[in-house]
Amino acid sequence: GRFNIDAFKHKAFYNPLMGRIEMHLSSRENQIIAVGDEVVNFNEAETIHTESSYKYTVEEFSGLAQVAGFELVTVWTDADDLFSLHYYQVNQ
């Protein structure tokens, strides 16, 4: 497609209902974008959702891993429990 990247701005926010950080490109103005033979109209402040970064508690992630056949060996966290590193092994 052809478009002016300066006509968009990056917008990121936490969506608590979905438990994720969302990245969007927000149109700075009304504009028309050509993508191949398609034409897309954007209104000012209209967004393109470009990425979702899901956030899980240690317990939520461990549950997902267990369903996938992994067993928790250990978890390391920062002092505030905001970030974690998990070590799993395949259930035998």
Proportion in β-strands = over 45%
Largest sheet: 3 strands, antiparallel
Name the structural class.
mainly beta
Task: Give Rg in angstroms.
Answer: 20 Å
What is the string of SSEs from the N terminus onward? Answer: EEEEEHEE
- Name the poorly predicted regions: none
Query: With helices defined by DSSP (H or I, 4 residues minimum), what is the helix count?
Result: 1
Please report the total strand number as a whole number: 7
The strand line-up of the biggest sheet is 1-2-5
Secondary structure: helix percent: 10-25%
Task: Please describe what this structure looks like.
The chain is mainly β and 92 residues long. It is 11% helix and 53% strand. It has one helix at 58-67; strands spanning 8-15, 20-27, 31-35, 38-42, 47-54, 70-77, 84-90. The strands form 3 sheets. Strands 1-2-5 form a 3-stranded antiparallel beta sheet, with no helix packed on it. Strands 3-4 form a two-stranded antiparallel ribbon. A two-stranded antiparallel sheet has the order 6-7. The mean pLDDT is 94.
Question: What is this entry, summarized?
Answer:
The protein is mainly beta.
Q: How are the secondary structure elements laid out?
A:
Layout: E1 8-15, E2 20-27, E3 31-35, E4 38-42, E5 47-54, H1 58-67, E6 70-77, E7 84-90
Antiparallel strand pairs: 1-2, 2-5, 3-4, 6-7
List keywords for this structure.
92 residues; mainly beta; 3-stranded antiparallel sheet; two-stranded antiparallel ribbon; elongated
